[in-house]
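Handover notes (outgoing to incoming on-call)

Open items:
1. Poly [ADP-ribose] polymerase: sequence verified, structure written out, both below. Nothing else pending on this one.
2. Nothing else urgent.
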Amino acid sequence: MESLSVPLEATEGYANGLSSHSTKTPSLDSHLSNSEDRDHDKESSISDCESGVSGPTIELEQPQLFGPGLVAIDEGDRLHEIIKRKFVSGLGSLGMETAVVAIHRNSCSGFLGQARLQSFRVFARAIENKCGGNGNLKYAWFGGSKDGIEKIVSHGFGHCENKGLFGRGIYLSPDDSSIDSVKSSIADENGLRHVLLCRVILGNVELVHPGSEQFHSSSEQFDSGVDNLMAPKKYIVWSAQMNTHILPEYVISFRVPCLNGVQRVGDPVLRKPSSPWLPFSTLIPELSKLLPPHSISLISKYHTHHREKKISRHELVRRVRQVAGDKLLTAVIKSFGDKQFKASTGFSPSTSNAFARKSGRNPEQR
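Poly [ADP-ribose] polymerase structure tokens:
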């Protein structure tokens, strides 16, 4: 897994001095580093957290969406532009319809804010030493409700929202895949949605398979999990490390049209199926003959959540595909379709196709 590493000095300067050693296309780490290094002497709004909140007066003129712990970044600020551009670029086609309303910086003010910052630095240094000099620090997105995000900034993560597909932990999206955090966000009373941009200590990552019930690293060798080693779309930070390995730095507030049916970046394109339709009430018993009990339990839980209108049908299908795999689902649905065809015609599909070829018809035109 290719890593864009960030030196430990990044945590010593908080939002000042972030950098990347990658020779490939710069990530958000290096973009923020370049901007903050150039503007440090001119813009106190992106100075070291420990220097306190003393930003330009224009911040006070902007509408206050949050309490004093979150300081608005001026739209004319280079940092605002970098974060906005990175956020929108990860939304795919939805980016054209998304309006970023405000970006706020976590000031890390107060005793608890400083304590969490210092804790993050200590663990970043410890993981760096453990991993031979590369703590694998990344930027990542996290979506939620406005109230939930305010509580995270003020008090830290209270519990793991996600208990299903990739075990019990906090799921974050890489900096080039903001669409997943947007899908997890909840509109407030004014129609605004909010996501966090966090600094995350990943250390050595391990692959976590769909349907996993994991809640900690499988061994001391690993520090966090990913859904894909080569091109991760999810970073998984276990519950025991959620308030030491994740540091919320920015809140992005935005408006976006209806998200129903929005395709996630990196998800396979869903095509109209040519196979027979198979209801979940039939699919689950068929899958239970082929999948382990914990996978069936997970699929059944997702089906229940869909019936209770907790998740959309699109989300239900996506999760079932991740647990069972497209190859198995295709085989089960095809087998079911073949049985239906034989029951209705008295012929097997292979016999029907052979007859169709002899008569000069397309075998697919049954």
